[in-house]
Design brief:
The protein has helices at residues 28-33, 75-87, 103-112, 130-135, 143-146, 166-169, 193-198, 207-219, 236-247, 249-256, 266-280, 293-301, 314-317, 364-374, 377-387, 404-416, 425-428, 430-446, 452-468; strands at residues 63-68, 95-100, 119-121, 180-192, 223-225, 305-311, 328-331, 347-356, 390-391, 420-421. It is α/β, with parallel strands linked by helices. Its main location: other.
Length: 478
C-alpha cells in the first residue's frame, strides 16, 4: 500500500519542542510442548440432545471454569454458573470455579499436560496468545454454539443475537470461530463531566481545542492527561481510532496486516506528533510513566488529570475511588483537522473478555452451554448491572438504569453508527502489541525518551520482525 496523502494540520503539530516494564508471556512453553491433538483426551460422554439441551450437554458432568479476575471481577460468571446448575441439577457441587490474574502461568502447564479447563476467560496482561493457541490446534470451534438456538428465543440462533463484529473477532482464518468475546467494550478518552462543567469547559472536538483546554487546565494546576505508564499499551485505546480517523480504516488494516510501511503512514506520523505534543508541553500528569493502571485511574478520579485513555470497564474498576458527583463520561478522539478521512465521533468499539473452550477440555459442551447461558438476557442484565459494561448480546439494557459512564459509552456508540473501528493487532499479535509497540515504543515516546520519528521507526521494526518470524502465525483482514 502506498502512503502519499497529506494532511493540513500535520505540519502545525511540529510546533512542539520540535509496564516498570511488564513482561507479556509468549507461551513458548505451550508452543514447545502442545501437540494439538485430542486423541487421548477422556472427554465426558455426550448427553441427550433436546430443545432444552441443544448442545447435548452431559447433564451430570462437572464443569471447570477459570475467569480472569480483572476489572469485571468474577461474580457475573458465578451467577451464570448458578443458572447452569438450575438447568442441570445433577451438576450441583460439581462446578469448579477459579479466578486469577495469572492466566498464562496457571494454565499453560494444564494445556501442556492435556488437562485444560472447560471454559476460560483468557484476558489481562498475562493472557495466552490466541495466535499460538489457534495455530497449535488447542481450541474448540464454537460454531456449534453459534448455530444453536439462543436462550431467550429458540427461533434465533446465538450468532444472530450478537453485536456487529463480535463473531468476526473470533475468526483467524477460514470460517471457524475460536474465541467468543463476551463483553462489548467502548474505548475512548474518559473524563469527569462535572469537573469540566465546574470550570466551564467542554469536551474538545478538535486537537487545537484539546491543546487549548490542556493549557487552561495547567494554569489551574490540573494535568490534561494521565495513563498507565507501566502499561502504556492503554494509549492505543484512543490513539488507534485517532489514527484511523485521520487516515481512514485502511491505515489500521495495514498495521494489522504487518505491511512493510504501515507505521510510516502520514496519519501515524500526525497522531504520534499530536500525542507527543501533550508530553512536550507538560500536559501529562507528572510521574505518569511510573503509574500502573489503578494508580493512574485513582489520580484521574481525584481530579489531578482531565483525561485518561481507557475502555468501558474503567467505571467498574474505579468504583471504590470514584467520587459520587464525578459523572463519568467518554469522548471520541478529537478531530485533527478538516482533512480527516473519518468524521468526529469515530470510535474503537469491540468485543472484550475473550472466552475460549479448549479442544482437550474434559467437558467442552458444558463450556459452550455456559456461554449460551451467559448470552441470555438474564445473565447479560446481571453482567451490565454488576460491572457497568455492555455485553456482546445485542440488547439487554432495556429497563435498566445505566450508571453515568456506561450510559455515556452507549450514547457514544449509538452516535458513531458505522464509524466504528476494530484494530486486530491486540488479539492477533499479543506480544507485539503490548510488550513491543505498547511498552518499548509508545511508552518511551510518551515518557519523553523517544521522538515521534524514532517511535514510528521502532514500531515498524517490531512489526517487520514479527512478519519475518516463521514461528508466529500470520493473519490478515479479508
Amino acid at each position: 500500500m502506498g502512503f502519499t496523502s497529506e494532511f493540513g494540520r500535520r505540519d502545525l503539530v511540529k510546533r512542539t519542542a520540535a509496564i516498570g516494564l511488564i513482561s507479556v508471556p509468549t507461551m513458548t512453553a505451550l508452543s514447545a510442548c502442545a501437540t494439538g491433538g485430542g486423541d487421548d483426551t477422556k472427554q465426558v460422554e455426550k448427553g441427550k440432545k433436546s430443545a432444552k439441551n441443544p448442545l447435548a450437554v452431559n447433564e451430570s458432568a462437572g464443569l471447570d471454569v477459570v475467569i480472569f479476575d480483572g476489572g469485571f471481577g468474577d461474580e457475573y460468571a458465578k451467577a451464570a454458573q448458578a443458572e447452569y446448575v438450575k438447568a442441570f441439577p445433577k451438576t450441583d457441587g460439581k462446578i469448579k470455579h477459579s479466578a486469577t490474574q495469572k492466566i498464562q502461568a496457571k494454565l499453560a502447564p494444564r494445556f501442556n499436560g492435556g488437562t485444560p479447563p472447560d471454559l476460560i476467560d483468557n484476558s489481562g496482561a498475562e493472557q495466552m496468545d490466541f495466535g499460538t493457541l489457534v495455530s497449535k490446534d488447542q481450541l474448540t470451534d464454537l460454531r456449534e454454539l453459534l448455530d444453536a438456538p439462543s436462550l431467550d428465543d429458540p427461533n434465533k440462533k446465538v450468532r444472530d443475537t450478537l453485536r456487529s463484529g463480535v463473531l468476526e473477532m473470533g475468526q483467524f482464518e477460514g470460517e471457524e470461530v475460536w474465541v467468543l468475546y463476551y463483553a462489548y467494550t467502548i474505548y475512548g478518552v474518559w473524563y469527569s463531566k462535572s469537573l469540566l462543567a465546574k470550570h466551564g469547559w467542554e469536551y474538545p472536538q478538535t486537537w487545537d481545542e484539546m491543546l487549548k483546554l490542556c493549557a487552561e487546565a495547567k494554569k489551574q494546576g490540573i494535568a490534561g492527561w494521565t495513563y498507565p505508564g507501566k502499561y502504556p499499551y492503554y494509549l492505543p485505546f484512543s490513539l488507534y481510532p485517532f489514527i484511523a480517523k485521520i487516515g481512514g480504516r485502511e491505515t489500521l488494516d495495514a498495521i494489522d496486516n504487518l505491511e512493510p510501511n504501515a507505521w510510516k503512514h502520514d496519519a501515524v506520523k500526525a497522531a504520534f506528533e499530536a500525542y507527543h505534543e501533550l508530553q512536550a508541553k507538560g500536559y501529562i500528569l507528572k510521574g505518569t510513566p511510573g503509574l500502573d493502571h489503578i494508580q493512574s485511574q485513582v489520580a484521574w478520579n481525584e481530579g489531578k488529570a482531565l483525561f485518561i485513555p481507557n475502555g468501558s470497564w474503567v467505571e467498574n474498576e474505579t468504583k471504590k475511588t470514584t467520587p459520587k458527583n464525578f459523572d463519568m463520561g467518554v469522548g471520541a478522539p478529537s478531530s485533527l483537522d478538516s482533512g480527516d478521512k473519518l468524521p468526529y465521533g469515530t470510535i474503537w468499539a469491540s468485543g472484550g473478555e475473550p472466552f475460549i473452550v479448549p479442544k482437550n477440555a474434559k467437558n467442552p459442551r458444558g463450556g459452550m452451554e455456559l456461554l449460551r447461558i451467559m448470552l441470555g438476557t438474564k445473565s447479560t442484565q446481571n453482567f451490565i448491572q454488576q460491572v457497568s459494561s455492555l455485553s456482546s448480546l445485542n440488547g439487554g439494557t432495556e429497563g435498566l438504569r445505566l450508571p453515568p459512564g456506561l450510559a455515556s459509552a452507549q450514547e457514544l456508540w449509538k452516535k458513531a453508527g458505522d464509524n466504528v473501528v476494530n484494530p486486530r493487532l491486540q488479539d492477533w499479535y499479543v506480544t507485539l502489541q503490548k510488550e513491543k509497540i505498547g511498552v518499548a515504543a509508545l511508552g518511551e515516546m510518551m515518557a519523553g525518551r523517544m521522538s515521534p520519528k524514532e517511535c514510528m521507526a521502532k514500531c515498524q521494526k517490531f512489526a517487520d520482525e514479527t512478519a519475518k518470524d516463521s514461528a508466529v502465525k500470520k493473519y490478515r483482514h479479508k
